[in-house]
Amino acid sequence: MCTAARNPAFHALKFRLRLGKQFFLGLGALAAGGPEPLGTIQGVGSGPGALQSVYSNCVPAATVPRVTDWLTTRMGFRLVNSKASATVHVIDQTLNVHYKVSLALPEEGSPNAVQLRKMSGLPTVCHTVALLSRPDGLDLRLELIGQRREPEDCVARSLARAVVSACNAVGYDSFAASGGRSHLPRDMALDLVRKKRKQVYEGEFQASSGCRLRLQFAVVNLEDKDGGASTEITGSMPELDLQAAKALSSRGGGAVTGPGGARDSGRWSADALAALKEFLSTLNTASLGAGEDRARVCAASRVKSRHG
């Protein structure tokens, strides 16, 4: 985290959780259950022929209600927010700059207009850790994400106005189906549009070690412009985000406290990771019937960029 805070200079650092499934390609001896040298595992994705990993954020539709029922009835989480939004990804073909326009959509039948939530570039995934469960359970991916300030140049402002104006003039669905033709500024191309309906749950998980994590999970129903639909379950840890913000403001040089408030030199991150491992095991055992979870940790330290 200190490296991410110093170089490059992000405006914000955040932890994000994603339930889903980790897949591996080119398993070699691992496919037969045999031993694999540590160097092979550490070289995931390093080149052609190497062990490759792909993480899917998609959660099966039948699994979602079991997860939310476990969160609310067994763990005491409560529904704190429900909203509709959309993200519009646009590429400036001349400058090869990627813009992400986040919109707040009105509820169906509402006279309210589409509004701009924020304008941003793509976030940078600085580091990832995947907690792996059994094949019939969900995995969990923890990401450390770096975000830069919202673009404030005249091109970004003009693009944001054009997208919002088009959505209010012809409707979001018509704008998305048109591919942005005749609506976007010159040399701008629509790359990706996704409508999101999100329900946010908030609660606390206390691990057997005594470590307490305040967690927020969002069930996100996604729909692309072609009608394709999927569901993701994403999460955040507000207290750890505060610690990341403190580390960023001090460029990694300040004292950091753990979820319980105690000052330490990094033990809080290990405690949080252990608590997340226990959370995942409990989730799979109680809500999915996956039996005793055998979570393992796979750290991927490559710097990546991804769509939001």
Provide an overview of this structure.
Residues 2-6 and 291-308 have low confidence and may be disordered. Helix 4 crosses helix 5 (172-178). The longest helix is centred in the last third of the chain and has 21 residues, at 267-287. This protein has helices at residues 2-6, 38-42, 64-74, 154-170, 172-178, 238-249, 267-287, and strands at 12-25, 52-56, 78-92, 97-104, 115-120, 124-132, 139-147, 188-206, 212-224, 229-236, 256-257, 263-264, 296-300, 304-305. It is globular. The chain is α+β, with helices and mostly antiparallel strands and 308 residues long. The protein has a single domain, classed as mRNA Triphosphatase Cet1, Chain A, CATH 3.20.100.
Descriptive tags:
308 residues, twelve-stranded antiparallel sheet, disordered N terminus, 7 helices, globular, alpha+beta, two-stranded antiparallel ribbon, mRNA Triphosphatase Cet1, Chain A
| Overall helicity | 25-40%
C-alpha-based Rg, rounded: 21 Å
Largest sheet: 12 strands, antiparallel
In one word, what is the shape? Answer: globular
Classify the secondary structure makeup into a structural class: alpha+beta
| CATH class categorisation | Alpha Beta
Mean pLDDT: 81
Distance between the termini: 21 Å
- Note the run of SSEs as H and E: HEHEHEEEEEHHEEEHEEHEE
- Enter the CATH topology name: mRNA Triphosphatase Cet1, Chain A
The low-pLDDT segments are 2-6, 291-308
CATH architecture: Alpha-Beta Barrel
In total, how many beta strands? 14
Share in β-strands: 35-45%
- The number of helical segments is 7
Write down the domain tally.
Answer: 1
